[in-house]
Design a protein that fits this description.
By secondary structure, the chain is an all-alpha fold. The protein has one domain. The chain is globular. The two termini are 24 Å apart.
């Protein structure tokens, strides 16, 4: 497969297109959907990518999101919402607070908290992958 192509039946979407995904709406629907339902699939695919792009725009690294995911798993989403600074910079904190409020509006319970924490881990993994790909691209350019 060459860059810019996907497996048959898999749509290719640009970063610009994915930035248009409503992450908070996807969280509200995806957290209550069945594990193999279409809203859950969108939550862990296009919405996670859109969230990673938004986080990247605000210079959020993967480690803080992974840490927040572990906190949600341990203390629960309700306690995470009470954190005075879930991330260090105010605009970063507001971004994740929006996500947490959207998750909170979904059906309550530890299952919701676990799925939300797994989603945060996915966003962190996407940030890591994008960072590594960017570094590899830079190395390749300068190695010629």
């Amino acid at each position: 497969m060459s860059p810019g192509t996907a497996a048959p039946g898999v749509p290719v979407r640009t970063d610009a297109e994915l930035r248009g995904v409503d992450v908070t709406a996807a969280l509200g629907r995806g957290l209550v959907d069945a594990p193999d339902g279409p809203d859950r699939q969108r939550l862990f695919t296009s919405a996670a990518i859109a969230a990673a792009l938004a986080a990247e725009d605000l210079h959020v690294g993967p480690y803080p999101l992974g840490f927040l995911a572990r906190y949600v798993r341990t203390a629960g989403l309700a306690m995470a919402l009470k954190l005075p600074e879930p991330l260090i910079r105010p605009e970063q904190a507001e971004l994740v607070r929006d996500w947490m409020r959207a998750a909170e509006s979904a059906a309550p319970g530890s299952r919701r908290d676990d799925v939300f924490a797994r989603w945060l881990d996915m966003v962190a993994a996407l940030l890591t992958a994008r960072r590594k790909a960017r570094l590899a691209s830079i190395r390749l350019r300068f190695s010629r």
